[in-house]
Amino acid sequence: MVLLSVLAVALSWALFALVFGRYRSRPSLHNAFYSLGLLLFALAVSAELLARLQGAWSPFLYRLWYFAGATHGVTFLGLGSLALLNPRAAKGLLLLLSPLILFGLYLVATAPLDFARLPEPYTPSGAAFPPPGPTSPRLWTIPFNLLGTALMAGVALYTTLLFWRKNPLRAQGTALIFLAALVLASTSTLNRLGVVGLEEAGRAFGVSLLYLGVVLADRSVQHAGGRA
User: Fold this and answer.
1) What's the mean pLDDT when you consider all of the chain?
2) Helix 2-25 and helix 199-227, axial crossing angle in degrees, nearest 10
3) How many helices (H) and strands (E) does the chain have?
4) Which of 30, 34, 138, 184 could form an S-S bond across to 83 if both were Cys, CB 3.0 to 4.6 Å?
């Protein structure tokens, strides 16, 4: 399990470096959102690994993991996907979500913690927070994860179908991104349903698919530019 966590961490930071480098060379709104989402995801899986290595969560690591990974990593990945199709709509949606994101940050930072409710001291589960309710962070993860996953998977599927004949390499990349969204969403859903122990494998597999998908899609753009 530790090796799978290390793999997920390494791939997450490598993917963030790849996309952030692309943003620096070709600044765009979708790459900015993708970079932020991947940074949050990399921080979250790093916090998980540190908690496992030290044998238990610390309050700081737990709150960081919950805000960055359990709540908002997929939010900004979804906004990045939307920005690919409609940057104005992505900006508008971010403005609408910003008060809720800030309120969620406040809840994550101030909600009481009880690590005794976790199956293991280092388990990546939201059970250390109070049961889902208006003032519990556990309620706020659901709409953000649903929205982010729907945007990420929906745009990836749409792009796959759009480029299946025009640009097969790009279509293969976006198909892998679609599968990555499903794997990561399934892992999070099982976690919320109380099925723990699959997080390391699910995240390592999901991040691997995401990494390969982004690399293929990026190469397809470079290849098309070279032919032009």
Assistant:
1) 85
2) 30
3) 8, 0
4) 30
What are 136-165's pLDDT values in tens digits?
898 888 888 889 889 988 988 888 888 888
Q: How far apart (Å, rounded) are the C-alpha atoms in residues 216 and 171?
A: 9
pLDDT at 197: 59
Burial state string for 184-210 with b = 16 or more CB within 10 A and e = fewer than 16: bbebbeebbeeeeeebbbbbbbbbbbb
Q: What residues in the chain have per-residue pLDDT under 70?
A: 1, 188-200, 218, 220-228
Neighbours of 88 (CB within 10 A): 10
pLDDT at 196: 59
DSSP H or E stretch at residue 199:
helix 199-227
How far is C-alpha 218 from the geometric centre of its chain's CA atoms?
19
Tokens of 169: 């390499």
What gap in Å lies between CA 91 and CA 86, rounded to an integer?
Answer: 9
Report the distance separating Cα 53 and Cα 100, nearest Å: 33
Q: Is the pTM of this model over 0.70?
A: yes
What tokens appear for 109 in the block? Answer: 């930072």
